[in-house]
Amino acid sequence: GNSVTQMEGPVTLSEEAFLTINCTYTATGYPSLFWYVQYPGEGLQLLLKATKADDKGSNKGFEATYRKETTSFHLEKGSVQVSDSAVYFCALSGGSSSNTGKLIFGQGTTLQVKP
Amino acid sequence: DAMVIQNPRYQVTQFGKPVTLSCSQTLNHNVMYWYQQKSSQAPKLLFHYYDKDFNNEADTPDNFQSRRPNTSFCFLDIRSPGLGDAAMYLCATSRVFPGTGVGATQYFGPGTRLLVL
């Protein structure tokens, strides 16, 4: 079945450091890929998405490229801020004709950015 | 702004006392989902409504029920809450086009944190 694997956290960085959170997936067909962010006590917010191979999703300085050859969707940001401290979830959806929109989540990666 | 609304944000209930959490959406999406989330774990899907069709996950306890009276509203009923049901409950919606295989974006509400005393 479909699955998503994220790098384990927590990830602790200093402000202005470069961020990479690895995400790889296993899926049939051509799923859509997502990164969601969850701030403490809040629901999940869509950060970015990509719907086909080689698409790059970007938002708020974060980027991720849909790499079908390596089945990856790594999240990157060039310079993190303290306000980026949150839990990040990689997820996939779709890819088959029986699609019901269900999301398959990775286990989440906690990012802590220190001043 | 179109959005997913959950009420209340915090709910305290007593062990064994039925509780209902509510979700509404202004996105006119055809699918609504309920998740349970503990600590900073990934959300766990309990069930979803595809239009009026109810779809239960195989491992969702019978203690959890849901109702969707119309497109905009969906309710989560916990018939007899136990201490282990204390968690964040998240509602989400998406627009799914049947048979296309295209992955749909889910939009989440802010969640309701349930405390069981």
List keywords for this structure.
heterodimer; A: mainly beta; six-stranded mixed sheet; globular; B: 117 residues; mainly beta; seven-stranded mixed sheet; 50% strand
Q: Would you give an account of this structure?
A:
The complex is a heterodimer of chains A (115) and B (117). Chain A is mostly beta strands. Chain A contains no helices and twelve strands. In chain A, the strands form three sheets. In chain A, strands 2, 5, 6, 10, 11 and 12 form a six-stranded mixed β-sheet that branches. The mean pLDDT of chain A is 92. Chain B has 117 residues and is mostly beta strands. Chain B contains no helices and eleven strands. In chain B, strands 2, 4, 5, 6, 9, 10 and 11 form a seven-stranded mixed β-sheet that branches. Chain B has a four-stranded antiparallel β-sheet with strand order 1-3-8-7, with no helix packed on it. In chain B, a hairpin with a 5-residue loop joins strand 7 and strand 8. The termini of chain B are far apart. Chains A and B meet through strand 5, strand 6 and strand 10 of A and strand 5, strand 9 and strand 10 of B.
